[in-house]
Amino acid sequence: MEIINSPAQIQQYALRVKRQGKKVGLVPTMGYLHKGHLTLIKEAKTKCDVVIASIFVNPIQFGQGEDYEEYPRDLTRDADLAKGAGVDVIFAPRVSEMYPKGYQTFIQIESLTERLCGASRPGHFRGVATVVAKLFNIAQPDFAFFGQKDAQQVIIIERMVEDLNMPLKIVRVPIVREDDGLAMSSRNVYLNAEERRQALVLFDSLKAAKSLVAQGERDAARVKEKLIEIISKAPLAEIDYVEIVDGKTVQPVKKLSGEVLIALAVRFGKTRLIDNIILEV
Ligand code: AMP
Question: Rounded distance, CA 94 to CA 266, Å?
Fold first, then answer.
């Protein structure tokens, strides 16, 4: 497995293998790989001949006062894990190669970014869409793999691909969880033991919401009440948002029907965790 830093070099590599008729898969990540990322890579291996994993902590998707500096980084460890999972090439560019002096171009997706993480992290999805568009141009993938963990992100990327006629297919991969239900995240390393224990309320609340809906509840306000009640049992939990939105438009729903996304962001100490569930009602 090779590690390539230069965008031009990875682009040449991708164009070369594509000329040989091979399908290229891209798994964009910010590194500090865990089983969630490795599941995306495995999925890519089943669909593609060549798998490129990018590792780039993208500064423009972090707001002022967010954890860009502290975000965990360990390329040596990531390289071992990626190699074990069958990655062919890691693309690990430097910030100065992705955003050289004079950089001016950004991608803005409109109403899909208004709520949830788009509301609590202004500018976040502009940074995400921009880097993902650049990664697509650089790595020329036929397929790109995104986790359902970042539900709003994958909805936005699918929209961008369709709106800008990008010639690739987005593959969604279900959320990978720890044995006790906590969604895997590179940020979980920030949690102390007590925060880690209390963070289980996130998945508990989503499971309770799912069973309420299974019992016939269709009123979004009542489902939201249940979610908040369960999350609030954790004294350290500070809710950023708990929202019930349409799974396609990311606009709030009053009555649950069709594809519904229940998404939440909750802080435990300095760590902001997100989780979600999609229900077909
Ligand atoms: P990140 O490195 O956190 O930016 O994540 C890179 C990709 O991995 C994104 O598409 C995430 O949605 C996905 N991902 C992260 N955590 C998980 C998880 N627990 N389950 C599934 N996919 C995940």
Answer: 31
